[in-house]
From TrEMBL:
It is found in: Cell membrane. It is a multi-pass membrane protein. This is AI-2E family transporter. It holds the Pfam family AI-2E_transport. InterPro entries: AI-2E-like. GO terms for biological process: transmembrane transport. PANTHER family: PERMEASE PERM-RELATED (PTHR21716:SF53), TRANSMEMBRANE PROTEIN (PTHR21716). It comes from Lachnoanaerobaculum umeaense. The keyword Transmembrane applies. Keywords: Cell membrane, Membrane, Transmembrane, Transmembrane helix, Transport. One of its GO terms (cellular component) is plasma membrane. The keyword Transmembrane applies. Belongs to the autoinducer-2 exporter (AI-2E) (TC 2.A.86) family.
Length: 412
């Protein structure tokens, strides 16, 4: 009895120490969240070329597998006694993936650059007339709304003085800073181009080595943790891979469809800058939830110079398109890929977007879905060990659980 009592106190003390340590670690992490995020950003920027290669290899892996299998079947049927056909099929599949990526980038550049140059030229030519149209439109609104006109005129002098103060105290003294930022932006853009080129080379290596790397990783896992836990880790890793693959590839397909729909709609009602705006809407749609609105803001500003009515029509169309995507197209393509409730989708995008920017917003949903699933599985595991129900319906309107009978007592 004495031994059992001591053992019980020892377990209680050990549990208390573990809880205190976990609380301290969580407190430390939350207090230094900005420092941790900055450190992660520095690490990511340092190995960004490798990350580009990993992302491209991840996206091109299904294409690579299919082409490699197809070429292997052709070579094996043409040369039945040739033993090296598998090696050459992989090499040709890698080359095909590289050509496909270069073709896509080149096609986008050839589509976007002329349209961008044309758009900039049109904006410069439209600017005087656009400003005049906007001024006439505002005057027309003010003439029809005398109360609103009085409010604007009453505050006109104050607004003018504020704008003048901003120009003299903030903008003009910082011209050199703006020029430096522009120069650093150009240098960063060149750095991105270099990283993409290096990433293409990394992608080629990873596509050829992915089977070997996966087998080596499995071997290390089983060597360290054994068979039972190793099987769990391998299963979870496969789930994570499938989750990201389905979500990201599905989101890219969804975004392409949205860009095409936007292109046909804008062409049908004869809006300007059709190709440029459709590409912007399609690319930003990769970001869940906020993507269409992020792409809509610069597009609306661009259309506002042409016609306020056109800009308003486009704004209404984007709202309609977002609803079509969110309720029809997106669910059809993505299905229940993540299984996350809407609140957690929004929460994950805000959290990861705040920590890691645009990239964080793109990977937020699948990452949080994995965390959400892991927490759920751990909860079920510990509930089963304690002999409690795992279904959430048993905890709806729960007052307490009887300690002896384990009966669920509902609130009155």
């Amino acid at each position: 009895m004495k031994y059992n009592k001591n053992e019980r106190y020892f377990k209680l003390g050990l549990t208390a120490v573990v809880v205190i340590i976990i609380a301290l670690v969580i407190s430390l992490v939350f207090n230094n969240l900005g420092i941790i995020a900055s450190a992660i950003r520095i690490i990511i920027s340092t190995i960004s070329s490798v990350l580009y290669g990993v992302v491209m290899a991840f996206l091109m892996a299904p294409v690579y597998d299919r082409i490699s299998r197809w070429i292997g079947e052709i070579l094996s049927s043409l040369f039945p006694k040739w033993k090296k056909y598998e090696r050459y099929s992989k090499m040709l599949a890698t080359l095909a993936c590289l050509i496909i990526l270069i073709f896509i980038v080149f096609a986008l550049i050839m589509m976007i650059i002329p349209e961008l140059v044309n758009s900039i030229t049109n904006v410069i030519s439209y600017a005087p007339s656009g400003a005049a149209n906007l001024e006439n439109w505002l005057k027309d609104i003010l003439n029809k709304n005398p109360d609103f006109e009085k409010l604007i005129i009453g505050n006109y002098q104050d607004i003018s003085e504020r704008l003048s103060d901003i120009a003299t105290t903030s903008i003009l003294p910082n011209v050199n800073t703006y020029i430096k930022n522009l120069s650093s932006g150009v240098i960063n853009a060149l750095g991105v181009v270099v990283n993409i080129i290096i990433g293409l080379m990394v992608m080629m290596y990873l596509l050829n080595m992915k089977t070997i790397l996966a087998s080596q990783a499995k071997k290390i896992v089983y060597a360290i943790v054994g068979v039972k836990i190793g099987n769990e880790i391998v299963t979870e890793a496969r789930y994570i891979k499938n989750m990201f693959e389905k979500f990201i590839v599905g989101k890219i397909i969804d975004s392409i469809i949205i860009g095409i729909i936007n292109y046909f709609f804008m062409s049908f009602i004869h809006m300007p800058y059709v190709l440029l705006i459709s590409v912007v809407v399609g690319v930003t749609n990769v970001i869940p939830f906020f993507g269409p609105f992020i792409g809509a803001i610069p597009s609306i500003v661009l259309l506002l110079l042409v016609s306020p009515i056109t800009a308003l029509q486009f704004a209404v169309w984007i709202l309609v398109l977002q609803q079509i995507d969110g309720n029809i197209i997106g669910p059809k393509i993505l299905g229940q890929t993540t299984g996350l409730p809407s609140f957690w989708v929004l929460f994950s995008i805000l959290l990861f977007g705040g920590l890691f920017g645009i990239v964080g917003m793109i990977i937020a949903v699948p990452t949080w879905a994995i965390i959400y699933r892991t927490i759920g599985r751990l909860s079920e595991h510990f509930l089963k060990k304690k002999g409690l129900e795992t279904d959430s319906k048993h905890y709806m309107d729960l007052d307490h659980i009887d300690e002896e009978t384990k009966k669920y007592i509902k609130l009155e």
